[in-house]
Protein: Bifunctional glutamine synthetase adenylyltransferase/adenylyl-removing enzyme
Amino acid sequence: MPTQLPLPDALVSMADHHLAQWRAAAEQAGLVDTLSQLDDRLLTELRLVLSGSDYVAEQLRRHPQLLFTLRAKGDLERVLEPGELAARLADMLSAITSEDELGKALRQFRQYHQVRIIWRDLVRHASTMQTTRDLSDMADACIDQAYQWLYRQGCVSMGTPTSHDGVAQHMVVLGMGKLGAQELNLSSDIDLIFAYPEGGETQGGRRSLSNQEFFIRVGQKLIKALDAPTVDGFVFRVDMRLRPYGDSGALVFSFDALEQYYQDQGRDWERYAMIKARVVAGDQTAGAELLSMLRPFVYRRYLDFAAIEALRSLKLMIRREVQRKGLQDNVKLGSGGIREIEFIGQAFQLIHGGRDRSLQQRPILPVLDMLAAHSYLPDEAVDQLKGAYLFLRDVEHALQAVDDRQTQMLPTDAQTQARVAYVMGFRDWQDFRETLETHRGHVARHFAGVIADPDEDEGEEAVPYEEWLPLWEGTLDPEQALEQLSEAGFANPDEAWRQLSGLLASPQVKAMQRLGRERLDVFMPRLLGLAAEQSDPDLALERVLPLVEAVARRSAYLLLLNENPSALRELLTLCCASPWIAEQITRYPVVLDELLNAGRLYRPPETDELVDELRQQLMRIPEDDLEQQMEALRYFRRAHVLRVAASEIAGTLPLMKVSDYLTWMAEAILQQVLQLAWREMTQRHGFPRRANGSICDLDFVIVGYGKVGGIELGHGSDLDLVFIHDGDPDAETDGARPIEGSKFYTRLGQRIIHILNTQTTSGALYDVDMRLRPSGESGLLVSSLASFARYQREGAWTWEHQALVRARVLVGCKRLGHRFNELRAEVLSRPRDESALRLEVAGMRKKMRDNLATQSTHAGFDPAAFTAESPFDLKQDAGGIVDIEFMVQYAVLAWSCRYPELLRYTDNIRILDGLRDAGLIAGEDVQRLQEAYKAYRAAAHRLALQKQPGKVSGDQFHDFRRGVITLWQQWLTEQ
Structure:
């Protein structure tokens, strides 16, 4: 029950009147004995329903036995099972023989269930969305069952419509609007579009008809069966105006004709409408194909800020319609009404839905949930919108329940006001109106904020762009332009003017279409105004203009920045701070989306969030669409690399965390890449086998070496990988196209590398280096664990065991990963002759210095050579990163036989902690090495973001270099 409030006096007499009429009708129908069996609860509910719905009262008066049937079947209490409505209607229609009987049966079916649904809604046995779903299921059943009956009759009288290949065809009925979203109200129209797969002719009839003519006739009969008013009323009012060309268009279109129309002539409001399209009747399989064909029209592949202008026009039209038609008291169309909530959700769907597939949904409440989950709207705003939506839909149902009339206008007469207020659980109309206006106020405020014109946003400081219009439009002579640039803070106005003139004369700008050029003409004055606010306007302009030139033919990106001044500010800030970031955004402008949410931009997610976010993005892509999966992986990496770099520049992310995030991201990507490649291989060839004949379930691991193994990835680092399996190389897979296990795993490795290395429009995922596998480039791409173990025990060089210190399993089979760790521990902890080991490690390091260092080996050890004229290679020169790494690797190889805890970690910092804790290295020496290592890596990161090589002036880091060299000479004096 919705309320424990007593029935108001104004409604008592109405309820008693309706109740007396029903009792009289029941007695006249001979139902006296049944009347005496009514329980108090049912009578209480009956009085409430009769006070709220004249329609139910009329149906019970005309059909007094209806209430007893509803009670006997339990239909007033329970939620119907999925498919139950369709099954009941099919049962009713099984014996009918004429279209008149069809129409009568459909109307009787609707009357019964309309009473059931209104009853359950008014007494709150059903939630708001259960009511809308129930109504939508009833509509689906009526449309589909009527169509199926008419189709069968049409095939008998006109022949069966077939394709050119002779395959029988069915019509597809698309439900639009509230029907498509399964959100019908009690008196909704149903918006339909009819389609059929392809041209052809009927077969088996007296004369041949085209498929279109056949389906037009069936469609006309279907509309009549549902819409025509008879003595039994109607089923649903049918609106066909959303079809191509509206009332002047054909009633039914082929799939090709629909696709061509939307591709060539589809308008933005039709995209807006098509968001909710759903197959409600006819051929579901063909209908799914049709919706797939139309999806690119609705959801553009990337961020669709081009839709903003159309949405803004639609929003203005909504406001004007409210004022012109006096719709303020309309809970759907008035300010703060249902339509505004739906507009908010669908605006985000049109703009972001092409890339964010979580927004590709029909019902509004799940869409709003996604807006909160993905930070498009604050949680508080979404909570307010959802609360308002449910309240307003309940009000809508209360209004329409009165007499089954399509209205959303608030009543003006006292009696109906009392009915609505009581049904909604309020003591009086005033209390109800106060709550209603609170909800509508929330909605109106959020509606005003959606796609607001940035120049009208009072909360946003005005962008000083108007003063730059004459310069960009060319109405200033060069001297005036140079003077304006100079006064605005440009240190080299001649160069700035040359760059701007070069952009105007570039082929990309000259080839722009009218709309794109208009967007550029809005953007450039904004850019100049904001660039002048930067500490180095020349640098800002120099680094952003290549992006402008790159996106000139894809001007939606310019629109994105025009619509979001804060995003343009972030762009300038980041590009000024790092040419590497500027280059990345220029090469992959799709990541501009990340600038829209500064809070998210400077807060990279934790590892679990990374894994979950990527998994969810890939889940929304069809399993067989490898191209989209590869693009999604690349966007994921580009976006998160930008977030990490931005956080590093802003100082919100320290060096160690930067490497952590970049490494976690690589692991999350590799996990998905392995799953994609494994699924593709097993679908094609079946599963490989183990030596005992059992089926392998991903007995495969990807081992990371070097920086990824040591959790020390930097910007632009490649991945040193080794692939290991534990299957039987000779046994064949168990699929329809079996291959030997060795070939299966080799091809699996090749697919992984293909997904990682392939250059798409979004570039490659990672550069992969496989040279650390057994026998290097001459070895097998994928090794079995047995052969890998044999090589490590018998054939590996000392430098390969050094590399194994930093090796760890990144992704794959946990059981195999555990065995790899056992093997690694066994190989590394083998007792070694320390003198011989020292010579080998020092000798390998000397070869590296001779080939890669900027200074000779002996000069590199002389602190007197540390001058500004002799640059210091942070990685390769004496006292640098590699010296520290070699000392750590020597220590693990020399001492882990006695101190196995040294094998626990693969990163240098924690291995050094272990050496200190074991008493093998003095605490102050460990601290010196760790501080030097962090300082070098931080400098290397900064240089990478500045697109500079990893070298600094030779007069830097003297103390660190001396300390590292001193320890090197103590441990690894070269003989």
Observations:
- The chain is about 60% helix and 5% strand.
- Residues 607-828 form a domain with the Beta Polymerase; domain 2 fold (CATH 3.30.460.10).
- The mean pLDDT is 88.
- The two ends are 93 Å apart (CA to CA).
